[in-house]
Write a structure and sequence with these properties.
32% helix; Adenylosuccinate Synthetase, Chain A, domain 3; 20 strands; globular; single chain; 2 domains; 433 residues; 13 helices; Adenylosuccinate Synthetase, subunit A, domain 2; alpha/beta
């Protein structure tokens, strides 16, 4: 078998999309396993910039099958718009499948997302208000509508009538007008008809590919510290971006996973509310934001920027059973004479042996820093480890030593070609290709 999971090892936005696109060149199947259009991936290649919110980043490779897995929450209109926009830039794409088990996001989910966020007042979570949380709530409450039901006209009519009756009562409690069934059914029936050829039972497709020895890559969205169970709750997403989510959202078992690569930035960012121990609120933070173009793919929001947090990254490595690290955006730090790196936490005057257990503790943590040499110059032309300045290589060694995981790949720029593979053996096993 040759299976590889790509996850975000921090709070998301680590350039996973670029890395999935790079590695998909030798993959047979790419499966996205969680989240919805609240997560975005940017891929730059051939002078074109592709912004994905739902499509797996493997879609640009015509010989690769791309699958939206059962763990996803899918807005049909957004998916169709994204397919059309991508085809307008590159007409020939890989085959696309949508799991019949994926849940459908409707307008009432988006409306409720906004109303619930407003009702939180000063305790806002910082959601994208794309309706993903309410869609997952319906999934847990067992009233959600799945893609397999959505594309069957009579089944969809019955299910939508049942669910909308409940949602309209809930909307009335917020003082909102009811959503008209006929207009909603008519509009979304059109989307269902367009998506019907893509929807199928995909678990067996993935399982067969795995057991036939194909190269199968599992694409995560967001980051480990936004995981519903393992993240900085309640400032988390509504699904499982961790490596374990690849099993939950695709139909494979944990022993079918050969390798897990965690993508991290050479620094740390976070979008929305929630704790962030190494956040920089000064001109250095703004410099990193500007040089790294740290603005959200989905919302355009400014990302909070800070120094690299190796305490969190080490925990993430163990949580996800990482076999290797992908260190991204090294080029962004060029020009800084020195870097600070968090290597420990203090809480109430004591060294912590682990992570905080609550938001209150996270907010009281005092990061302990070590200072390392920075570097200057353009890194984007580097294509091997020896092409990088010695201070960059020292920084990578410092990260690997503290996290206890080797560096497999480094990214030195946003383009597909601006990538250095350090450990080929950590990428793929013996697969079909």
């Amino acid at each position: 078998m040759a299976t590889l999971v790509i996850i975000g090892a921090q709070w998301g936005d680590e350039a996973k999309g670029k890395m999935v696109d790079v590695l998909a060149d030798s993959a047979d199947v790419v499966v996205r396993y969680s989240g919805g259009n609240n997560a975005g991936h940017t891929v730059i290649t051939g002078g074109k910039t592709f912004k994905f919110q739902l499509l797996p980043a493997g879609i640009l490779h015509k010989d690769c099958i791309s699958i939206l897995g059962g763990g996803m929450a899918v807005c049909p209109k957004s998916l169709l718009d994204e397919i059309a926009a991508t085809r307008a830039q590159q007409p020939e794409l890989g085959q696309l499948m949508v799991s019949a088990s994926a849940h459908v996001v409707f307008p009432y989910h988006r409306l409720l997302d906004r109303l619930e966020e407003e009702a939180r007042g000063e305790n806002k979570i910082g959601t994208t208000t794309r309706g993903i949380g309410p869609a997952y709530t319906d999934k847990v409450q067992r009233i959600g509508i799945r893609m397999g039901e959505f594309v069957e006209p009579e089944v969809f009519r019955k299910r939508l009538g049942e669910v909308l009756a409940v949602k309209n009562r809930l909307l009335s409690m917020f003082g909102e007008n009811a959503i008209d069934f006929d207009s909603l059914y008519s509009e979304y029936s059109g989307y269902a008809a367009a998506l019907r050829p893509l929807v199928r039972e995909t678990d067996s497709v993935v399982q067969n590919a795995v057991y036939d020895g194909w190269k199968v890559m599992f694409e995560g969205a967001q980051g480990s510290f936004l995981d519903l169970d393992s993240g900085t709750y309640p400032y988390v997403t509504s699904s499982h971006p961790t490596a374990g989510g690849a099993c939950i959202g695709t139909g494979i078992g944990p022993r079918s996973i050969d390798g897990v690569l965690g993508v991290c930035k050479a620094y740390t960012t976070r979008v929305g509310e929630g704790p962030f121990p190494t956040e920089l609120l000064d001109e250095t933070g703004q410099l990193i934001r500007d040089q790294g173009q740290e603005y959200g793919t989905v919302t355009g929001r400014s990302r909070r920027c800070g120094w690299l947090d190796l305490v969190a990254l080490r925990y993430s490595a163990r949580l996800n059973s990482l076999s290797g690290l992908i260190v991204a955006k090294l080029d962004v730090l060029s020009g800084l004479p020195e870097l600070r790196v968090c290597t420990g936490y203090m809480l109430d005057g004591k060294v912590m042996d682990g992570l905080p257990t609550s938001v209150s503790e996270w907010n009281r943590v005092e990061p302990q820093y070590e200072t390392v040499a920075g570097w200057s110059g353009d890194l984007t032309t580097a294509r091997s480890l020896s092409d990088l300045p010695s201070s960059v290589r020292d920084y990578l060694d410092f990260i690997a030593a503290h996290v206890g995981i080797p560096v497999a790949i480094v990214s030195v720029g946003p383009d597909r070609d601006e990538t250095v593979v350090v450990r080929e053996d950590l990428v793929w096993g013996n697969g079909k290709n």
